[in-house]
Amino acid sequence: MRDEDDTADDADMGKSGAAFWRIPAFDSDWRDSLTIDLTGEEAVFLREKILSMPDVNDSLLALVLRENRNDFCEYENFADISAMRDIMPPAMWSDYCLARDFSAFVFGAQIRFNVIFSEGQNEAANELWTDYKETRPMVNLSEIQARLKPKSDVRRFLNQFQATIDDEPALDALIIKREKDLKTASRAKLTNRELYRYDGNSLNMAPLNYRFGNVQRIVRDIFEGVDKNA
Predict the structure, then answer these.
(1) I need a labelling partner for 43 at 20 to 30 A (CA). Which of 6, 30, 82, 121 fits?
(2) Which helix (H) or strand (E) holds 170?
(3) How far is 20 from 13, CA to CA, in rounded Å?
(4) Rounded Cα distance, 53 and 68, in Å
(5) pTM for the whole thing?
(6) Contact at 8 Å (CB) between 210 and 29?
(7) Are 170 and 177 within 8 A, CB to CB?
């Protein structure tokens, strides 16, 4: 939506400087052979853009593409990325470890949420909670918070969660309050038993994977497309 005195139109885009869009060349009949797979040219173009753009050329995604790590597509979960330690720069390895350890740590909150919601009837959640307390995933919250600078309410919840793992009544009260703060009291599942009842299924009970599957899909598409160009 434009102001009334804004007379620019789409035809002007890119004429005052560098082109707004940069895409591979395409034929006029491109619609006739349209697929969801990358062509060889498209795959090479996308790979080179990822490797050359300042904001992403030092990312894990760029590293996978630069080193042709096809095995990345076969990893089953985020923790498997540790197999690439030998090629990760120290700073990247440090960030990865923080992300991996944080995923294991905060998973406890999701497990405990399901224990509360099911009123102890979710046997899978009960077993996971027992395992969680025994293994006690460790994480350096101070380092993570210094790195990411989360909002004060997030920082406070994480610190309190870590401090109350052995005090289940206090921990449950903390998790219930956090859900109410995020969703409001009227939408919180843990405090509206007349609206939300345990039906035998777990709710969002999976470790953080940071869109790992999405990245695998992108990498696989690029590698398969590049192979067409070989």
Answers:
(1) 82
(2) helix 168-183
(3) 6
(4) 18
(5) 0.81
(6) no
(7) no
Exposed e or buried b for every residue in 146-182, given b needs 16+ CB within 10 A?
eeeeeeeeebebbebbeebbeeeeebbebbbebbbee
Distance CA 126, CA 118 (A): 10
Residues 6+ apart with CB under 8 A from 108: 129, 132, 137, 161, 165
Residue 20 in tokens: 């707004």
Amino acid, res. 37? D
Which residue, among 41, 147, 155, has the nearest Cα to 94 in the 3D structure? 147
Q: Is the dihedral of CA 109, 113, 116, 121 positive or negative?
A: negative
Interval 121-170: pLDDT, tens = 999 999 999 999 999 898 999 999 999 999 999 999 999 999 999 999 99
How far is the C-alpha of 114 from the C-alpha of 179, rounded, in Å? 12
Q: What is the rounded CA–CA span in Å between residue 28 and residue 26?
A: 7
In terms of Cα–Cα distance, which of 70, 41, 66 is closest to 56? 66
Letter for the amino acid at 73?
C
Burial (0-12, 13-18, 19+ Cβ within 10 Å), 64: buried
Amino acid (1-letter code) at residue 87: I
- Residue 145, judged by CB atoms within 10 A of its CB (0-12, 13-18, 19+), counts as middle
